[in-house]
Specification:
This is Alkylphosphonate utilization protein. The protein has 1 helix and 11 strands. It is mainly beta.
């Protein structure tokens, strides 16, 4: 019997071969046959709005006005945020913004500086 790898995204055993890649029918994740498990561990999961990988300690720039929930403050476009920290969850960047304080941001609203 031909052993196919489990899905790296959801660990499903129901993967199938689709030519040059494997596909998971449960979560829709696709990955290359030539990718080994060691290479996927080194690539970061968090990317900015342009697709650049983000790492702890990077500086980013906000690309959209963001309202601060529960406050009348707004994080303006072009605000530079230094020394970010990546965390798990929906808001995957933990940082401190001058004049506002500690915040959590979504990586889709920032670009690498």
């Amino acid at each position: 019997m031909n052993e196919l790898p489990n899905c790296p995204a959801c660990a499903s055993a129901f993967t199938y071969d689709d030519g040059l890649q494997y596909v998971c029918p449960e979560c829709g994740h696709e990955w290359s046959k030539t990718t080994n498990a060691d290479a996927t561990d080194d690539t970061p999961g968090v990317r900015d709005a342009n697709g650049n990988p983000l790492f702890d300690g990077d500086s980013v720039t906000v690309i959209k006005d963001l309202k601060v929930k529960g406050s009348s403050l707004v994080v303006k476009v072009g605000t530079k945020v230094k020394n970010i920290r990546l965390v798990d969850g929906d808001h995957d960047i933990d940082c401190k913004i001058d004049g506002i304080g500690p915040m959590k941001l979504k990586s889709e609203f920032v670009k690498k500086a």
